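Below is how a single chain appears once it has passed through the pipeline. First comes the sequence as given, then the structure the pipeline wrote out for it. We keep one example in the README because the format questions we get most often are answered faster by looking than by reading.
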Amino acid sequence: MDQLLLRSWWMLALRGAAALLFGILALIWPGITLLVLVALFAAYALISGAVSVVAAVRHRNTDKGWWLILLLGIVSLVAGVIAVFNPDITIFVLVLLMGANAIVTGILDIVVAIRLRKQIEREWLLALAGVVSLVFGLLVFLFPAAGALAMVFMVSFYATLSGILLLVLAFRARKWVKRSGPQADISSRYPRQPAT
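Resulting structure:
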């Protein structure tokens, strides 16, 4: 999975760019209705999910951990499809769907970061993006009836922060690939030092 993430740094970059755009649009329109917010969320979830699925499928034969990235993509795609194809679903349920997607995505990002911790340095960026998603999802479930404006700002903060973290991680992975070549072994480039 570590090689998959580095070879597919563009996957992290696209996920980060989509999250950042989603966050900025939500912030620019503070009077946005929850219905428009849910439409933006659906677009973000579909783009993020599709990118993850494509990256996982492309590298399924070269990486044993590809299924985690595939699972992350499927979760986002399902959340986006539900938001798009169930217009009769209530806004409350869609907000809960956003929270559930954030929790599952956060957990999967943290799992991927933990798997990478012995392979590369600064995997904490992905873990931090996972924690941001997890906290956002939990806040949505703790305060599902928060006012529309409060929800917009909470979503905007979550998406912007996780987008920035994913973009930073993507460009670090891209820099490593350029320096070492796409076939380089990660563990030989960033060996972990034993704790003394």
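The mean pLDDT is 76.

See the next section for the split statistics.
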